[in-house]
Amino acid sequence: MPAPAENVGTFRDRIAVNRRNSLLLILIFLAFVTVLGYVIGYAWVGDPAGAVFGLLLAFAAGTVSGLATYYAGDRMVLAASRAREITHDEAPVLFNVVEEMAIAAGLPMPKVYIIEDSAPNAFATGRDPEHAKIAVTRGLLEKLDRDELQGVVAHEMAHVGNYDIRYAMLVGILVGTTVLISDFFLRTLWFGRGQRRGEGGGQIQLIMFLIALVLAVLAPLFARLLQLSISRQREYLADATAVSLTRNPKGLADALQKISSDREVLEVANRATAHLYIANPIKKFERRAKGLFSTHPPIEERIRILRAMETGGVPQQAP
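Request: output the structure for the sequence above.
Response:
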């Protein structure tokens, strides 16, 4: 059943809010990394010049890793997932569905990849819609019917259209930079260099040293929690956008039901790529960590919202 007309506006409003929040969070992340670099630089060298050095070092590390990930991150993800590009003749139904959803979303046709794994799952990657790629597993093609496949592809096209694929890469860069700086500082302590510097730099350096130590320990955890929280919100938004493309919430709901009940394990997935998939492929971990460390919202809740749409209900605000 088509989604109520008033819900389309709701989807667009949520997309606009999502983009504003994304920009705000990136700015907060950048400010946090900058402060982290400044404090660690001061604690390490013991004067303002050292703080500027730390800040520049953080900026350089973020720039290098950012450029590498921005231009080659999608290829690295696909290679790590053992995905290979396929032609229309190898999977005509999949190609037709992807083409339909690209037209419905007003987006360029993405490149299509397949992962030779019997577990049903899929993800999208790339820095923008012009460089987008969609990868699905062999199990997804074999276990889902056409309407269900359409729902999954629409969900992934929603990630492309909402620029979630770019955002995921940017946040990944910032989280990675935070971890890199923290790890560098803690390693200097391990080898005794930071302690030696801290002995002769005065009281201010000692205070900065303690602040840097706390930030270095807590920053990676904080960054990771924020990344996972954002990932969960974007899954709800992608589900809602997918329904606006297909006008068929049942297809996506049935697909999520099949994927969640499937017992196959996606062998190529890992902690670095798990958040990209439509459903968390690391199921055992998801069961252990249904709270803060879950990369996805509860799939039962996503299905419940989609079932409400089937009967004309208004989708609830994602938590």
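The CA atoms of residues 113 and 262 lie 21 Å apart.
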